[in-house]
Amino acid sequence: MARIILVMHEPLGAAFASCAEHVMGHKVNLDVFDVAPDADPEAEVTRLARLLRQENEPALLLCDIYGATPFNIAKRAIRLVAGDDLDAHLITGSNLCMVLKALTEQQEKPDKLSESVRQGALRGIVDAECKDITHFGTGRDN
Fold first, then answer.
1. CA nearest 91: which of 76, 73, 111?
2. What is the spatial distance between Cα 90 and Cα 25, in angstroms, rounded to a whole number?
3. I need a surface site. Which of 12, 92, 117, 129 has the fewest CB within 10 A?
4. Where are the beta strands (DSSP E) in the chain?
């Protein structure tokens, strides 16, 4: 199964991991790689590459914002380990639906898991009008 690694602005990855544990009701199997505001990007690339090599398993990296520092660190770390024949895939725009989908989907290949997670995220984005929502315990709509 592909490893899940959250590469995000600190403390977002840890918060997603905590929320996923709350929703799923148990400890989740993922790595959190939060990037501190004062982190040295070069050192973080090396640290993330070391984490990727640690298990020598396919990995799906979820980032919060395309083009931001955590994304750039992840992209460079993936390039660094590419010569080691490590299969890693990176997607951005992460939300809780994506994290939960990644944790519950059983996929060996990160590229297939990536597409499934992306589709799950799109299904989780809903334009919910207030008139369609029932107020809990009141039996009335508004």
1. 111
2. 27
3. 129
4. 3-9, 31-35, 59-63, 88-91
* Tokens representing residue 8 in the block: 């995000």
- CB burial of 29-45 (b: ≥16 within 10 Å; e: otherwise) equals ebbbbbbeeebeeeebb
> At 14, is the secondary structure helix, strand, or coil?
helix
CA 140 to centroid of chain Cα atoms = 37
* Residue 12 clears pLDDT 60, i.e. is over it: yes
Strand partners of residue 33: 7
Interstrand relation of 31-35 and 59-63 (parallel, antiparallel or unpaired): unpaired
Cβ–Cβ under 8 Å, residues 60 and 5: yes
CA distance 87 to 55: 12
C-alpha 135: how far from chain center: 32
Name 9's bridge partners.
35
Query: What does the pLDDT read at residue 134?
Result: 58
Q: How far is CA 5 from CA 42, 47, 57, 102, in A?
A: 19, 13, 12, 10
